[in-house]
Structures are given as C-alpha cells and as structure tokens.
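Protocol step 4 of 6: record predicted structures for both targets in the notebook before any analysis. Target 1:
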Amino acid sequence: MMNSILPLFVAIPLGASFLIALVSRKRKLPADIIANLSTLSLLVLSIIIFQARGVYKIGGWLPPAGINWVLDGFSNLFLVIINLISICATVFSIKYMKHYTGVYKYYSLFLLMTAGMNGVVLTGDMFNLFVFLEIASIASYALVAFGGEHEELEASFKYLVLGSLGSILILLGIALVYGMTGYLNMASISKAISSSGIGQVHIFAALLFITGFGIKAALVPFHSWLPDAHPSAPAPISAMLSGVLIKAIGIYSLIRIFFNVFGMNSIFGGMLIGIGILSMVIGVFLAVGQWDLKRLLAYHSISQMGYVILGIGLGGFIIANGGSLIVASLAFLGGLFHLLNHSVFKSLLFLCSGSIENATGTRQLKEMGGLLKKMPVTGTTCTIASLSIAGVPPFNGFWSKLIIVIAAMQAGYYIIGFVTILVSFVTLVSFLKVMRYSLWGPVSGILANVKESPVLMVLPLVLLALLCIGMGVIALPGVTEVVLKPAIEVLVRGAEYAGYVFSQL
C-alpha cells in the first residue's frame, strides 16, 4: 500500500508547478499558497512512509524492461531532507520574494526542482535518474538567474555550461554501462557486474560518474561554478542549492551507483577519500578570505561536502580492504550524519543571510555590525548555525565531525583524523569572523533603523535552529538509531541492493 504513495513525490510538485503556471499569472490563486501546500504535503508523506520499504513498478512492468522506484533506508533519509528544507524555503519565500516580479515563475521552477530531486532519490533506473537530474538542474539554472541582473545571468551561464558538461559525462557513463551489461535498471546492472566483475570499461565509466556527479556536487576540483551561483541566487534558492540539490543530484547519485550498483572496492574508496580531503581543505581556506557573506557560505559548502564524501569513502575503503565492519559503519554514520546536519545548518545560514540582506541591503560583512541587537531572532539563529558548522559542542555539527575523526583514528588513518580536526578549527576561525563583523560590536550608523524580519521569514530560522540544538543535545541517540541506521545498512550491504529489489517485485 505504501508503495503506491511513491509517485506522489513527483506528481504533487510537478502538478502544482504546472497549476501555478496556468492559474497564478492572473492571480486566480496565489502561487505561494499552492507551493507551500505542496511542500507541506510532501514533508508529511515523507514522514508517514519513513519506516516503509518496497519497490514500485511503474505501469506494473517488471524490470529490466520496466522502470521501478525503490524505497529503502537511504532514499527515505533523502526524501525527508529534501522536503524538510523545501517547506522551510517556501515559507521563507512568502515575504522574501515580495520585491521580485513574476513570482509565480519562481514557485513553478522551485517545484520542478523539487520534483526532480525526489525522482532522483527514488528511481531504480539509470536513465530515469538522468532525466530527473536534468529536470532539477535546468530548473536550478533558471532560479540562479531569477533576479535578471548582470551578476545573476553571468553566474547562471557558468553554472549552465559546467552543469551541462557534467550531464554529458554522466550520460556517456550510463551509455557505457548499458553497452557492457545491456541493462539500465540498477539492480540488473549490479547483478550483471557481480557476475562478470569490474572491467576496464566499468572503471572508465566510474571515472565519468565521479567527474559528472562531482560537478553536480561541487566537489574539488569540479567546484568553480558554485561560488558564483550561490551568492547570485535568491536566498531560499541558495538554501536549496547548498542544503539539498548538490546532495540529491550529486552526493546521493554518486553513493548509490558506487555502493549499490558497481560495488565498492579499494580504488573507488581511495578516490572518494582523496576528493573528500581536497574539498575539505581547499574549500575552507578559500572561505576564510571572503567578505561577501553568501560567497563565504558557498565556499564552506564545498568544504563541508568534503566531510561527507570523506566519511562515506573511508567506510567503503575499510570494507573493501577487509577491515572492521564496526569501524566502517562508524565512518558511514559520521558521513551521513554530517550530510543531515549540513542540510540543516547550511540552509539556516543561507536563510539568515537572506534575512540580513533583506533588512540591511548588503552582503558585505564590513558594512554590518551589531545585528544581534537589531535583529535578535536572526542573530541568535545565525549564531547557533555558525557554532554548529564550526563543530562547537554540543551542537549537531560537533558530533558528526567527532564520529568521522574517531572512525579515522580507529582505522589507523591518523593523518586523515588530523586534517579533519584542522579543517574544523579553520572553519571556526572563519565563522568567528562572521559573528564578529555582522552580529557583534556597535551598530553601524547606516543600520540604525534596521528591524527584525517578518514572522514568516524568521519562523523557518527558528525551526532549523531548534533542529541544530535538538539533534546535538536531545535527540542524538534517536537520530542515529531511527534515521541514520537504516541508511547505513544500505551502504554496508552494498551490491546486495540487487537482491533486495528483486525480492520486492
């Protein structure tokens, strides 16, 4: 019964997107109402089916001829993340987007992007994944350029060019896999590769996937589009890009293919560890020198994705080399927990930056000051998010970073543990600068009349700030056991994904 709900995760936002385009232009029905009802219903559905597992066969056709959608612990985790951040962004947009024209287009594109991301994390078909990935990507290109100014158009064009290159490489990788196995269904491909083994063509396809999905996830050295796209986009879109988009169409897809389709080995694990460390280190040192608040946050997205890939890659590398399954699971826990945490505190930081920019008219840290007094809710929630991303206890970011460090140390990779601690320290320095120049100190004269943002803008900030505190102080055991453990089991089982899918048909 629960399996029949799965198409709604695409049908609801897709239908609402077209409904907004049809009726909201002439104000027959406000676009923000349709959008918020849609994202709210998606969040409710994702919570309802969180403990459910199963496979939905589109049209009743069995794979490999038909397309199936797979609901397991890994896809469940991402559905909750995507739709939680989506409702926060749409609520924030109600007031934030008032000074934009053509708002109905914004909400229509937003829901298209949401539909694409939900489709990516549910599909069990490689080409279907590519189609949904493109729906989400194309909508995000337009949303980055939504302001229509020179900066937005330039950033969107760069994002479009590099994103299209990533899509081409992904499509070529899918074609190679199809040519070698004769299948597009992920479970069927996994079964075929398990029988024949990994060949040179598979390794070449894997390199194409790493590059293509690495561009989508803005991992170093494929990150150059992100520092321009995030600052240029409206704040709710920046929150979506950093909070969920780069994870759904980049990180999720990469992990799903490498663990559940190809099967993890030491080569793939080593590459993920290397990319993770590069992203962590380069991203954080590029962030330190930034004075544009949103640009600083964008570089930290690159760095924080490095933590996620490092934790996942480390777990896979340990398993591939016959290491301790407990230590590998601990690394997976750290990577997935940090992915969840980053979705919350980075979305909160971008929404806080939008609240600050909306009230002050600037993103430059040197032009701010004393905002904690003038905007107490925004200032307090921004402080919580800054401490969370910096890994200060007892906030949620501290625990996920600590778990990754412990896993690296227990596996004997002391240099990796040291680098992780160093990057966390530099992150703390960077966000002390943010708080020093924007929130603390005397109020700048030009900001004397600044007031707190409207209730509908600060409501998502409070919710996300409470999650930063709750997941770190109150609900840590529950989060790890109920939310993350099922996703970890999917990664540990690896290529057994194929057996799970066929057992559900």
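Target 2:
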Amino acid sequence: MVAGITGQSFAPDDCKLLVVKVGSSLLVEDGGKLRKQWLETLVTDIAARHAAGQQIIIVTSGAIAMGARKLGLAKGGRGSLADAQAAASTGQIILSGAWAGLLEENGLAAAQILVTLGDLEDRRRYLNIAATLGRLLAAGAVPVINENDSVATEEIRFGDNDRLAARVAQAAGAQGVILLSDVDGLYDRNPSDPGAKILPFVDIIDDSIRSMADGASTSDMGSGGMGSKIEAAQIASLAGVSLAIISGKHDHPLERFGSGGLSTVFAANESKGARKSWLGGRLTAKGKIFVDAGAAAAMARGKSLLPAGAITVEGTFARGDVVDIMHDGKCIARGLSEYGVDDALLICGKQSGDLESILGTVPRNVIVHRDQLVML
C-alpha cells in the first residue's frame, strides 16, 4: 500500500455545499467551440442536486479558449499576455452567457463573480467574497466563478482554476470540491503506462504523492495539471474540505461519480479554524524565515516560533505580513510575522531575554505567535 492511502470514500450527496470545477479541455473543443451537449448533461446533474437541497458553486475555465476562437487569435489566445487578456475579455461574455442560459433552462439563477489572486489573498477582500457567496447561496442562486484573466498578470494570477476552486470552497465554507478532469484521478504513474493504478483515496499528501504528478496539463488549452490538483487538495484539506478528482469525459459526470465512478478522493483533515485555514491556503508570502530543527519540532507541537530558533530571513516584509517558515529546504509552516525584516534579522538566533538590549524597545518575545501560525 502506498503511504498516505486508505480505503475511505467521499459521498458528495452528504455535502450541504459543493464546489464543482470545470476545466477548459472539457468545456471547449480544440477549435474553441463550446461543447454544449456535454455541458447540458452537467447542468442537468447540477439542477438535480440543487432540487435535492444541495447548494452548488461552479468554478469554470474556458474564457480564453472561446475568446481566441471569436477573435481569431493564434495559439488559443495564449501567444502573449495581451492576447490572453483580450481573449478572456471576449470569451467571458460567451462563457457566462452559456452558463446562465443553461442554468435558467433548469430553473436556476446564475450569478457571475470574477476574481484575481489578490481578492482571496487579502484578508478583508477574502471576507467580502465569502459574504457575497453566502448571500447568493441563501437567495438560491448558483455562483459561477472564474479568474479575471482580462486584468490578471503573471504576478497576480492563480494560474489555474484548481487552486481557485479550493480557495473558493474555503471562503464559502463548503464541505466538498469536485475537480472535473480529463483523467479519472491520480495514478501511481503515467496513466498510459502498462500496470498504472488509480489511487482511490489519499489520506496524507506527502512527497510520495506529489511525485506521482507530472506537473503538466494533458490538453493545450488548460493551464493546470495533476500537480495543481494536488496543491488544490492541500488547500482544501487544511480547511477541512474533501476534494475529489473525477473524469469529465462522460455525460452526466456528477451522476456517474455519485454512482461509484472512478475517482481519487483526498481526505478532509480537521479544520485549523477560519483564519488559519486562510493562512495555510495562501499562495503568496512576503518573505521567508529559516528555522532550525528544534524550532521545527516545537512548532509541530503547537508552540510559537521563538527568535532563538530562527536562522535567517529573506524577503521584504513588515510586522503583520505573511511569511513562509522554512526548514530543510521545505516550507513547513506559514504565519504572520511579529517583526519587520530588519528587526527579524537582528534577533535571529538570540534569546528572548536579550531582545530589549538589541532592539532598544520592549520587544515581543516571539517572531510568529502560535495563534497566527499554521503547519503545512
């Protein structure tokens, strides 16, 4: 048995709120035309779940591919950032119209939300999105969410909608995420290799699991791949949300999954709490703090990061900024720094009793407090 794998399962019907992510390769044909007949079957599934009392949020890709077809742009609209933004601007109208029309045919109201990475990385904007989603769901609408590729740049992009779906689930308080993919789930090797086996359940996301992802999308239209799906599962897990990767190549994919279709399910760990889940799910940090083995072990036991356990720092950060905490070449934790970078450098490796003489002020005796820290 592979490390981290058990025999548990995920029952999507048990989720009061479910996030469903649909990728470009499923929504759009190679020429950029919408796969409307397939999408109709998916919306039928969504409507059936909604009628049964389940709330649904859709995270959708496809705007760039559809816009590139409309504008006649080469390389599917991904030849340059300007092309991608123009294609997204054009395709988003087509895409949202398709979703709204099909949902309305099934008696459901669609609500569009376009977000950038910064909208979910900034705490206040994150809470605003959470409040908007809550009100829409309470009113019976189906939120349809996409990254705002028309304004996003490489520095502020999610880069794929897998991680966006996990962050949306976190913000909305969902119990489950389903990533519709062009494969049935995570395999122990390339699915085309003889003897490749699907992993039905992943309990712990460790290096052995990450090594099974090839890091690339199997289509030319999408920007994600199995690596991004595993990162999404990590974000979801920290928030206490189960995540399933299933195939979207079949009609009625949600019905098929609910009836026992192939999938890989990533376990929901115990939620770290709202603020810590937000911290753990962030994709950006202002700096890094490198720590020794003793500090790493202490934090794993629920302790704060003390100056004595810090080796050095990198980046440009102020007090209250998010920092990654590094040990042995890996990011092991994330938290809010109690010090700016200059003072943090001065106190690395120092005992708490020496801080006042070093800084000339009454100091805070930790660099990152345990209440503002989450282990990854």
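Step 5 preliminary note on target 2. DSSP finds 14 helices and 13 strands in the chain. Confidence is low (pLDDT under 50) at residues 1-8, 215-224.
Proceed to step 6 after PI sign-off.
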